[in-house]
Amino acid sequence: MILDPMDARDFEAEALAHLTSVYRVALWFCGNPEQAEDLTQETYVRALAARDRFARTNMRGWLLTILRNLYLNAARRRSLVTEVPLEDSGDFPVEAIRDVPAGLVRRDIEAALNKLPQELRLLVLLVDVEELSMAEIAELLGWPVGTVKSRLWRARTMLSQLLSDYSGGMT
Amino acid sequence: MTCESARWLFEDALRDRLAVADREELGRHLAGCSPCAEAYGRIERQARVVATFGTAVDAPVSLRRWALAVLVRRGRGPRWKSALAGAVAGALLVAGAFSILNRLAEDPLEMLTREVVNDHVRVVLRQRAVEAAPEDPKTLQTIMARVLDFPVPSPFPGNGVNRLIGGRPSYLLQREVACFYYRTPSSLATLFIVPVDRLGGLSRWFPSAPEVRKRGDYQMAFWRSDGLAYFLVSDSSSHELSALTEGIRRM
Question: Would you call B11 and A149 a contact, using CB atoms and an 8 Å cutoff?
Fold first, then answer.
């Protein structure tokens, strides 16, 4: 689809509006602010180059897909991606999900999140911070929706246990 | 509905993405199944905690400058961390950050209004991030004190017409802010509070008596008091916004 000059301006404005979200997801992928900034820049460069192919629906999803592909390609080149299969039991046991303790501060939450396996941390952040739907996450990560849900349940279970270690406030 | 089926729907239910029939059936299940109801509550609280943490993360200033430069210059490649990128960014800074934003045809208050309205719509209208019971403004103030590095006044609890329904520490325009949420007779409102001296050039726009800016269906009342800048946004009527503003100012 060819964009006329007015549409190009709208494209830029909307792309800019998603900058924070794209950067945050890059940070959730990379775990490093400098790498996240570079990855975000590369995402926007690719997006600008491909803007004529943008279908005008869900720009954030389109940007995040570009970002994911760039991240995976770079990670594979650096042999950073190890495809460790997570067991998907398909169960949703409730007994192990603990309540959020009182008195948590930012660094407690950050520390607990950082202790999650990278895939599970990414899942929780995509759901709770970026507010992506199960279907959007499934498309972004290339998983079935059922896998997204079962892994997210596991992530929440693990995170609840990690957060409970920080109960009592300042650490 | 079985427990497994119910738990399958939890994440969509948290974000109000269920079809009406599913939502009603889940509601009936939770009303009769305490393990599922407890688990749902715990997941909901965990999600809020994570959201509070994550939404405070913002794109660094260097990245924003770069994005503005690249998007304004349209198609010229980035000079990622080169001296040229620095020179461009520096020149743009000298020209004034708001002149960059004027590229998007906005004055500073227009930019502020846009950000505040967007945050109100994104957060409040999705009914997220209520950190405390509505009748407990002191608890909200305590939560803010633990997270924010400036003193936050005890929030206006409401007066029977308007009602405090929650709040959270948040992040707006790369600044930490206190957010309080209110229910007005016709809608919802968000109050943001931040020290005036952290607004930089925007601080001179904040009057001691409230003024109002409009953006589409939304209005933003803004004023300063005791070193703090207040902005209150809602799509309620002007009369309701004014009444809530006066209630807050009298605290």
Answer: yes
